[in-house]
Each structure stands twice: as C-alpha cells, then as structure tokens.
Amino acid sequence: MGYALNFNLIWRHFDKLWGGLLLSLELAVISIAIGTVIGLVLAVWYVSAGRVVRAIIAAYVEFIRNVPLILLVYLVFYGVPTVVDLAYSAPTSFVLTLSVYSGAYLVEVFRSGLEAVPRGQLDAGKAIGLTPWQRLIHVRLPTMLRITLPALSNTFISLFKDTSIASVISVPELTFGAQWINFNTFRIVEVYLVTTAMYLVTGYILLFGLRLVERRFRAAR
Amino acid sequence: MSDATNASPALLDVRDVSKAFGAVEVLRSVSLQVKRGEVVTVIGPSGSGKTTLLRCVNFLESYDSGSIRIDGKEVGYREAGTRQRRSERDLAAMRAETGMVFQSFNLFPHLTAAGNIMLGLTKVRGKSQTEARQIAEHWLGRVGLAHKADSLPAELSGGQQQRVGIARAVAMEPKILLLDEITSALDPELVGEVLAVVRSLAEDGMTMLMVTHEMAFARDASSRIVFMADGGVSAVGPPKEILAAETSNERLRTFLARFRASHF
Ligand SMILES: Nc1ncnc2c1ncn2[C@@H]1O[C@H](COP(=O)(O)OP(=O)(O)OP(=O)(O)O)[C@@H](O)[C@H]1O
Ligand SMILES: [Mg+2]
User: Fold this and answer.
1) What ipTM was assigned to the predicted interfaces of this complex?
2) I want to staple B44 with a disulfide (CB 3.0 to 4.6 A). Which of A27, A208, B48, B77 is the partner?
3) Which residue, by CA, sits nearest to atom 3 of ligand 1?
4) Is the pTM above the cut of 0.90?
C-alpha cells in the first residue's frame, strides 16, 4: 500500500501517448474504411449469389471470427513474408490484417441488414420499374443502412479498440506508447490509468459522433 | 405474328394462367380480360389466389403456364412461345407500365412523400428533379396531401401513407393500376379517404384491377366483378349480378352469406 501515485513522468512522455492515440485512430480509420468496402461488396454479393459463392464468403467470415486477432497479426507480419516474397512495414501489415478482419465482421452486419429490408419495399421498387441495380442503390442500401447503423457503430468502436493489438508488432500506437513509458519509468499504474482514460474518452467521443449520425439518418429525408 | 395483328381489344388479357407454389396449385387456368377504362374487382375467400394473380400481372411472381398480355405484349416471358424469362432490364421496363398499390403501403421509409413519388419519375422515366417534383406535387394535391410533400412516411397516418402509395403508382402514368386490398390495413375511419381517391381515378378513366373486401365499394365502382375460388375464376359479371343474394353459383352464395354475416 506504500505506492504513491506520481504522474510527472507520464506527462513528461505524454507525446508518446498522444502520438500513439493519433496513430491508433489513423489505423482504425483506414482499416475500417477498407473493411467497410470489403464488407459491403461481399454482403451484396452474398445475398444475390449462388451456393458456391455463399459458401466461400461464409468460410472467410467463419475463419476470421474463430481465429484470435493477435494470431492473424503475427501470421500476416511474420508468416506471410517468409512464404511469399513480400515486404511491408509493421503499420501496413497491421492495416492489412485489421481490414480483412473488420471486413469479415462487417459482412455479417451488412448481410443481416440487407436481409432485414422488408420484401414489400423491394416489391415496391420493382413495381415502379426500377432495375435490380437501382433497387439496390435507391431502396435496399438506404434501408439497410438505417437498420444497421447501431450495430455498425458498435463494431466501429470495437475495431478502434482492436488497434491496441498492433503493439505486439511494435507499431507505435497508444498501447505501445504506454508500454514504452512503463518500461522506461516503471510508473505502471499511472501510465495505464492515463491510457485507459484516453481509450475511454476517445471511444465515447466516437460513439457520441456515431449516434449523432444515426439520429440524423433516422430523421433524414 | 406481330403484336399488332394479334392484339386483342382487352388492355389486360390473362389467359389460362396456372401457378403452383411447390405442390400447392394456387392459380388454375385463370382467364380474365380488362378493357381500357374498366374497373374490374376480384373478390373471393382467403387463399383463393387473388394476390398471386395480381402479382403475376406485373411479374412480381412468375407463372407456370398460360399468358398474360398488356396492350398485346407478353408480360414476363419473351414472345415466340418459349417460356424464356425476359431480362431484368426488360422486366423493369414492363413493370413501369403497370402501377401497384399494396395492402401494407410499402413506402420507401427514407424518402419523403414527394421523394417516394419522384424516385420512379427520375430513375425510370428520366425526368429532371424539377419536373419530377412538379408532378409529385400535382399528384399529392390530387390525393389531398399537398401540405405533406416533405413529410416522411413515419410522420403520416395509414390513410395518408396509402394515398401517397396511390400517388406514387399513378404518377408513373401506368396503363393499368393494380390494387391489392389497399384499405385492409387501415383503421375503419381512414378507409373512406382512400376509397375516395380510387373513385376519382376511376372517374378519370384509369384502368384498374383491384382486390377488395369492401363490397359496397366494389358494387359502386366496378364495371365487373370476378369471383375467385380455389385458384380459379368461379364467376364473372356486372356487380348487380355477382353480388345478388340469389345467385345460382353455390360457392359464391356461401361466400356472400358468410361475408354478410361477418361484416354487417
Ligand atoms: N410465396 C408463397 N409461397 C408459398 N405459398 C404461397 C406463397 N404466396 C401465396 N401462397 C399460397 O397461395 C395461396 C393463395 O394465396 P394468395 O395470397 O394469392 O390468396 P388471396 O386470395 O390473396 O388471400 P387473402 O384474401 O388472404 O389475401 C395460399 O394458399 C397461400 O398460402
Ligand atoms: Mg391477398
């Protein structure tokens, strides 16, 4: 119980945490953007495809969902370059991994959203003479988005937290910054208190922003 | 044989159409004609195939045999007697020629009343936003909703939503309007405002094929009534004849008797 909190060393190295947070956000934004494209394309493909394509997409989703992210990160960073002649930096490797990872989760979110669009709306789209592509763009996707936004926000926040795993391949994001400060100052309690607070606050800000978007969409024309 | 030489006087010509869902025969050799400007009402017990028939007319459902022609043109399949389905693009173009109003309204929830009407006008009819907006406002005025142009479906009552549904269908200037129990999902006090709109369209000469349980309305507004039972057309005739209590068609008599017992 003799431990006295002292945050001075933390503030001295705060740039490590701040820079780390910015990198965490960058990793998350890029990965989620790529993952969203993967998720959308595969989900749309899934709901209109035959059995074989469905099975392949389902296998991808199942594989990713049943392997811990940390293993995938190791696999892509250490494993892939030894097998094929590819070289990439740790951040690139992580973005690649998290994109494919988030893609699998987002396929599920989008697919269930697409399937939840009431048949009546699709019928109405057909009845006024929209082509399948027009029905997708003007009827199915907008309704799907409204249905999935809450689940989408939660997935995005969770993916943001997953960027902490990049620390295992020394990507200098927030968790890695925390580890660095811990090794160099031994202020373990202080550094993780501050880091936790930073994740929490950022997560809340993101969630708040996403909820605003949701509300706008619900009321939007 | 070209369409023109083969054209029948009927705008809608349904001939010997049969359809099964799996082992269940839902339509059995149904034939029926609707002339330009006619209002034909389909009545019949639940499960007799009324909805399925309407959905075949704009090919929301495919059918197994027979032919459905609008203005002499086969609806879902290519000509030449084969049962080759039209391309999706072709089907979309064909469907733009028929309007449909649904029991459950089926408005696009993310679009305003005007937006619902404008979607088909801009994307299918190729009209500009301005022109589409004018047409939408015109039709919203016709159904008494000029002041609701910018309301979302969720902000409208059932009766108002259904009137937007009608406006969305007629704004496309379809050759024929299909109405499937369009007042069944409405509170009784909202039925009148929707039927009034249908009546005014009929007075304008809009060709309609409708399914309804509103017998009084069917009697007043229809040129002819078709009674369906077990997937087939059991009786066709002018309202007075079909709705007469002393009809010789036993099934129809039973249907009407049951109907009167439950509705009056
Ligand atoms: N998609 C479907 N798959 C399987 N069976 C169906 C399908 N749609 C309709 N049916 C069956 O076809 C029959 C006719 O249905 P339909 O909806 O055309 O009847 P209806 O005359 O409109 O009845 P209601 O008055 O209840 O609306 C019913 O037995 C119904 O269960
Ligand atoms: Mg029905």
Assistant:
1) 0.90
2) B48
3) B21
4) no
